[in-house]
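Now for our target.
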Amino acid sequence: MPVTDITTDPQSLTMTLTAEFPAPVERVWKAFTDPSQLERFWGPPGWPATFGDIDLTVGARVQYRMTSPRGERSSGSWEFLSIDEPRSFEVIDSFVTDDGEPLDGFPAMRMTFEFHETPEGARLVNTTYFDNADALEQVVAMGAIEGSRMAMAQLDAVLQDLREYAEGKGTRVELLDDTHVRITRLVNGPRELVWRAHHEPDLIRQWMLGPDGWEMTECVATTTVGESYRNSWAPVGDAEGEPFGFEGEVLLVDAPRRAVTTERMQGMPTETLNDLNLYEEDGATLVTVLIEYPDKETRDMILATGMADGMESSFQRLEREVLTAARP
């Protein structure tokens, strides 16, 4: 966790976040001023951000949008007040409509980003200044403290080379809280093809099979919001187990970057929310699946089935059968 402290001060009307990173100041500066990198961490898990082009000049303005798995949107904008590359910059951060107009009932805040060298790398001090105590309380009540902590926790993957961060580490499972799990896997192939492999039946049938000895007996795929998908599997030959399947509905699609679906085992009422995100760098794609469970008991029960091992077997097959076959 890079965040070392988040404090609020009702006297000075500030909220201050401090974070430490094992990377040079210039590298951390780049992460906060390059929109393609900001998009990977500025929003907390489940609310990824989309930034417009950033013009690092005083008076310039950039708008961003964060979108929840169910499609709710929160938009904001930065107006640059000062820039001292790579040591600091200052912005007015405002809640805005999709058209960029100030949002009634929500405060605009002055924010400073200071980057300091440390023996281990760099320290970020991010201070937000509020006009009054009500504005400070409103933002804290909206979950700004925990949201900021979770957002900054995603920076490790951004600051490292993607292959250095994830290659050879298999399918990784992180318990974010009692109901949220993040699963990551680097696959050696372009994002466009990895997206197709997740959504085209002919490709899905080649790799999404879990452990050896199983076959996919049904595959109904869609990328249309509101439509349903359905996948079923059964053991082959002497393989142990009973046939099963999953089904659900498509809630959000931003091809080839993001797809959000519900998921439930066929014949069962319990439902999860699966948020798939794909990020490509240097010919490899980081697959991230954020899963929201209804409760801790359901989370633990599903993880105990060996789900991660089955996913790893499938990802290995994806690289071997689909991605390798597609290379010239």
Summary: The chain has a mean pLDDT of 93. The CA atoms of residues 104 and 291 lie 33 Å apart. The first strand starts at residue 3 and ends at 9. The domain at 3-160 is CATH 3.30.530.20 (Alpha-D-Glucose-1,6-Bisphosphate; Chain A, domain 4).
